[in-house]
Amino acid sequence: MNRLMPIVSREQIPTEYLETPIGRLLEYHNLERDLDPCMNAELLIGMCMDNRKHLHIPDNFAFIIRTGGGNLRYSEFKVSYSIAVGGVRCIALIGHTQCGMVNLIARKDQFVQGLVTAAGWQQQSAEEHFFHYAPMFEIGNEVDFVMSEVKRLRLRYPKIVIAPLLYRVEDNRLYLIQENAPGAR
Ligand SMILES: [Zn+2]
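That is the input. Now the predicted structure with zinc ion docked in place:
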């Protein structure tokens, strides 16, 4: 996890993000900046559906798309909408530690049995469901996945500022993922 950059003071926010909604997200959440009144959405946040995360941000500040692992590959229309109609010019993509979309195969039996017993599915249907979708939603490694998604989104939306972040559920803080750290891809 040495690619994570803690943000505990305003000076640590990189200049390319400092006076942007991404910088303000970091100030609101990590630095207890007073919540400014917001009339319009300024930021699109992509983050995991996981229940353990809560962002400290003003009302109206951000569109938030929550998906398994913060994966936006299947949410492109909503990303486009938030830019074209919603008016946002920045995206914060936030992965998190202990993400359930890592190593899905390890939870295959739990997934199948859960659908059978809790939802009333047939065993075979539940297995087919798992094997059909697990490869689409598996993210591998949280940090690498966020970086690969950020790179993909930057190519797709070249004028939009897009930042890779990680939420550590252990301390509920946001960290910037360093892009030119040793070992970064
Ligand atoms: Zn997750």
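The mean pLDDT is 95.
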